[in-house]
Structure formats: C-alpha cells, structure tokens
Amino acid sequence: MTPKETYVGGCLCGEIRFEAIGPALKPHTCSCEMCQRHSGSLTTVWVEFPKDSVSWTGHGGAPLTYRSSQYSQRAFCSVCGSTLGAIDDAPTVALVVGCFDKTNRKELIPLAHSYKGGRPKWWSIGVEGE
Ligand SMILES: [Zn+2]
Ligand SMILES: [Zn+2]
Questions:
Q1: Over the chain, what is the mean pLDDT?
Q2: How far apart are CA 112 and CA 126, in angstroms?
C-alpha cells in the first residue's frame, strides 16, 4: 500500500503547526474580498482536507478563529497573527498554501481561481476561473 502524503506547515512564529494527511483536495486560488482582508494578499491559495485529516501539532495547539460567514471561521495565530486557513462547519479544513513548509508540490498547484474579478487587472496569476 502506498503511504499517504503528509503535508506540514505552520505560522510565522511557529506556535501553530499542522500536519495534514492527503489527498489534498480542491487546490484553488481565491481573490474574494474576504480572503483579501483575511490574508492581506490580493489572492490566497487554498487546499482542502477532511477535518479528521488535520492535526494541530504545535505548542499553541489549534489556531484562534473568527467567524467570517454562516458556514466558516477564519483561523489565525494568536501570537503572530498569521493567516492559516478556514475551519468550516462542514467537516472541512482549508489551509493556505503559503503556510506549508514545502509549497512546490504538484498536488498543490491550483486548478481553479474563484472570484477572479476581485483582483486588480495588473495582478496576473495564470489560473483560469470565474
Ligand atoms: Zn504564530
Ligand atoms: Zn475567498
């Protein structure tokens, strides 16, 4: 049996660390206003895992959350403020790829771009989408 892929990463200060067991689902970018304000980036790169596949392994345990919509909470480090992802009420955790220790993995290449119209026209990311 092939061992499942493991993805590790964490926040800027290292208090929050995660380990996610693949497969990494729905890699995509998003340029909606909520993602922009949450991350400070014009476009956020996301990948999803079933909630049970994500463990918070750092000293700080699970990240703090802010309820950003009826179905999801945004997760961040209480010490350094890094954006880590979104913890949905549905059993899904979406992690931002910028927090991964190894970002150059083919399974993390975005397949779609949500809210493409939310970014300025000069900002090109090379992924098709809405
Ligand atoms: Zn931190
Ligand atoms: Zn978004």
A1: 94
A2: 10
